[in-house]
Amino acid sequence: MYVILVYDCGEKRVAKMLKLCRKYLNWIQNSVFEGEISEVKLKELKFKAKEIMDKETDSVIIFTSRNEKWLEKEIIGTERSSTDTFL
Q1: Rounded Cα gap, residues 68 and 55, in angstroms
Q2: What is the pTM of this model?
Q3: Which residue from 36, 41, 57, 85 lies 20 to 30 Å from 24 (Cα-Cα)?
């Protein structure tokens, strides 16, 4: 499945959440990630994110789609990092 993940965490937890999300998805902008991920890996990511988060103040929002082709993406300005895969 294709996922867009956005998080908002307290200052003390931002670096840990960034490091975690980069293991699973492509970092496209501050606190925003996207990419293909299996259901099992997504469950793993959610579990680990919950361990980092303060559930009273932090949030993670996950948008899912069956495939990237069902999304339209327009980039205005500078793209932080390309999501193209090089082989």
Answers
A1: 30
A2: 0.80
A3: 57
